[in-house]
């Protein structure tokens, strides 16, 4: 902590925390979790990845998981699926909305021509994780999430979604792109739940953000 810049980042061995536009330190739970996630990401198999969005999406997912684990009450950084909502990094509110990335101009849906910007291209991965964790119409005051194929998706809860995601991260290989991320998380879901319930919901969430199957994708049952 102490960087004299409006920024926070992983420098290869530690996180460096700067300040926001109000000169307050960027110490929000999801920001810190996001930056530490880059350290996890950088030591995972297959890093660096072959398509933009996977590294920053990993950070956002780990940030959401950190918030959920800490489970802080208001007015602190309560569990949610917005990124950086407690800080004023650029004066424009949350940096990203995982349940609807288009709210900040990021793509909700995958395409083979994702934007080159790493943060913008994280939209489909963030969207997939929200759909897997909470579903498209979760209720309980949680926001609905539009799907790219018009489907209705049922979530598995954030803890199970986190286990699926992390299991997939450990299966990443050199050249991992979104389609391989789909295959690897499906393999992780199948290993996690032999009844195939988690697998089918993981697959439905990927279909809902239009990430197509990859060669060698597992089936269940």
At the first level of CATH, the class is: Mainly Alpha
CATH architecture: Orthogonal Bundle
Largest sheet: 2 strands, antiparallel
Q: Helix-strand pattern, N to C? A: EEHHEEHHHH
Strand content: under 5%
C-alpha Rg (nearest Å):
17 Å
End-to-end Cα distance, whole Å, is 49 Å
Please state the average pLDDT score.
93
Task: Characterise this structure.
With 221 residues, the chain is mostly helical. It has one domain (27-208): Neutral Protease, domain 2. The chain is 38% helix and 5% strand. The protein has six helices and four strands. It has helices at 29-42, 54-70, 123-134, 158-170, 178-192, 197-208, and strands spanning 8-10, 15-17, 82-83, 96-97. The strands form two sheets. The protein has a two-stranded antiparallel sheet with strand order 1-2. Strand 1 and strand 2 form a beta hairpin. Helix 1 crosses helix 2, helix 3 (123-134) crosses helix 4 (158-170) and helix 4 (158-170) packs across helix 5 (178-192). The protein is globular, with a radius of gyration of 17 Å. It starts with 7 loop residues before the first strand and ends in a 13-residue tail after the last helix.
Give a short summary of the structure:
By secondary structure, the protein is mainly α. Helix content is 38%, strand content 5%. The chain starts with 7 loop residues before the first strand and ends in a 13-residue tail after the last helix.
Features:
two-stranded antiparallel sheet, globular, mainly alpha, 221 residues, 38% helix
């Amino acid at each position: 902590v102490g960087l004299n810049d409006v920024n926070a980042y992983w420098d290869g061995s530690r996180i460096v925390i700067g300040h926001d536009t109000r000169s307050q330190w960027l110490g929000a739970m999801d920001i810190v979790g996001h930056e530490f996630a880059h350290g996890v990401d950088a030591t995972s198999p297959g890093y660096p990845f072959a398509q933009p969005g996977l590294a920053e999406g990993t950070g956002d997912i780990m940030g959401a998981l950190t918030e959920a684990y800490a489970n802080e009450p208001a007015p602190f950084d309560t569990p949610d699926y917005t990124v950086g909502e407690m800080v004023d990094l650029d004066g424009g509110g949350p940096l990203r909305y995982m349940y609807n990335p288009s709210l900040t101009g990021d793509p909700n849906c995958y395409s083979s021509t994702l934007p080159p910007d790493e943060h913008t291209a994280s939209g489909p991965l963030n969207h997939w994780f929200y759909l897997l964790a909470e579903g498209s119409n979760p209720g309980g005051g949680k926001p609905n999430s539009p799907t790219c194929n018009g489907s209705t998706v049922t979530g598995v809860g954030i803890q199970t979604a986190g286990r699926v995601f992390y299991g997939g991260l450990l299966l990443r290989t050199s050249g991992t792109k979104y389609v391989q991320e789909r295959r690897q998380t499906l393999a992780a879901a199948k290993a996690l739940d032999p009844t195939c319930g988690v697998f089918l919901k993981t697959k439905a969430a990927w279909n809902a953000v239009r990430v197509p199957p990859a060669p060698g994708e597992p089936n269940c049952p």
